[in-house]
Amino acid sequence: MSKTPYAVADEPHEASHAESSGLEVKRLTFVEAVAMIVGTNIGAGVLSMAYASRKAGYMPLLFWLAVAGIFTTISMLYVSETALRTRRHHQLSGLAQRYVGSFGAWAIFLSVAVNSIGALVAYMSGSGKVLSEFFGISPALGSLLFFLPAALVLFLGLKAIGKGEKFISIGMLSMTLVLVIATLVNENTQFANLLEGDWIYMIPVFNIAVFCFSAQYVVPEMARGFSHAPKRLPLAVITGMLITFILLAMVPMSVIALTGLENQSEVATLAWGQALGQWAFYTANTFALCAMMTSYWGLGGSFLTNIFDKFQSLGSESNPKTRLMVLAIVCVPPFILAYSGMVGFVSALYFAGVFSGVILSIMPILMLRSARKNGDIVPAWQCGWIAHPLIQVTVVVLYLLSMAYAICGALGWLPASW
């Protein structure tokens, strides 16, 4: 058995994914694909982590980031092999329909819908707060200013999303580096803050950590973009997830070290920027907007193409009128919900992460097992030891316990302070 996280087939048959499912094929570069993962992951979750862990502390957060990152990467690699075994292009719901059946397809589609809507609500709310701080305008107007360019890129499609993710992700990396260095040399930084907290409060932090690794949804998009070079897919997944983990660890580390656990705001970069000074206020919150924008593109684009894949009677996604209609279905409800008073910034992330995490812990395993029996082609790349049944059971148990905790919390069976 291979000692590497994945194994290349001895005699791969690189058949072209020529069959159409209404989804267009646009080639992605390696950097664009990695940026799609980083951009999708680094969204509202990274902004809420310091606040969500204000009772538990930084060390439990770091632990859960590592656990969630590892097992989410494994799940993404299951989806990667499943997509590469399938001649026709599909999104997650289409792959589930192909290999698990209608129940699995609807479960995945609802997972995509709930997670995407929950995230887009959070981005609408978060962007409105940031732009309100910037320009002294109302949060609703700020959200509208964010919404217009975000929706435009979604309308333009996969290649525009890939290029946008690439340039803005590079900018986010640069801004993060500047802010972290400024934090390290600031006289008010107290690294002892990172050791504060209480591990008894660690359980709720897991669901926020799970949501921060939400890029499973873009794997089929990447497989479509890598149909000309399928061996790049797993490497891009692993690279993107590793960069994501580093960024997710660095941002709350800097914020907590600088401001302490007790001074966290729901959108952490507001407190971060205020503590470092006026220049950092604008830099940190520009980072926040970029993070929400790239994640909006990743999750929103995935939701849009899942709709086309699930409801193939809509026809091609390249039809402008149909695409505009589906785009409205994806983008308008989150804007309305953000200002309906029905959901909060962190709670939206919390329950979206729980629901989608459970579905995405089980379905990729079932899809992979079925694809290995019923797939169309022998892929150029296959999972190795990470597909062992013990690892698959661990993934399922971990996320089921997360769901059980969320249900108990919602029913009031757990301490309110959690």
Structural class: mainly alpha
Give the low-confidence spans. Answer: 1-21
- The total count of strands amounts to 2
Shape: globular
User: How much strand?
Assistant: under 5%
InterPro entries: Amino_acid_transport_2
Subcellular location: Cell inner membrane
Protein name: Amino acid permease
Transmembrane segments: 30-52, 58-79, 99-122, 134-155, 167-187, 199-219, 235-259, 279-304, 324-342, 348-368, 389-414
Keywords:
15 helices; 2 strands; 1% strand; globular; disordered N terminus; Amino acid permease; Amino_acid_transport_2; cell inner membrane
Explain what you see.
The chain is an all-alpha fold and 418 residues long. It has a single domain (6-410), classed as Up-down Bundle (Amino acid/polyamine transporter I), CATH 1.20.1740.10. Helices cover 70% and strands 1% of the residues. The protein has 15 helices and two strands. It has helices at 30-41, 44-52, 58-84, 92-99, 102-135, 139-156, 158-185, 203-212, 219-225, 232-259, 268-276, 278-310, 320-338, 345-374, 389-410; strands at residues 6-7, 382-383. It has a two-stranded antiparallel ribbon with strand order 1-2. Helix 8 packs across helix 14. It is globular. The model is unreliable at 1-21 (pLDDT under 50).
Topology summary:
Elements: E1 6-7, H1 30-41, H2 44-52, H3 58-84, H4 92-99, H5 102-135, H6 139-156, H7 158-185, H8 203-212, H9 219-225, H10 232-259, H11 268-276, H12 278-310, H13 320-338, H14 345-374, E2 382-383, H15 389-410
Antiparallel strand pairs: 1-2
Helix pairs in contact: 1-7, 1-10, 1-12, 2-8, 2-10, 3-8, 3-10, 3-14, 4-5, 4-14, 5-6, 5-12, 5-13, 5-14, 6-12, 6-13, 7-10, 7-12, 8-14, 10-11, 11-12, 12-13, 14-15
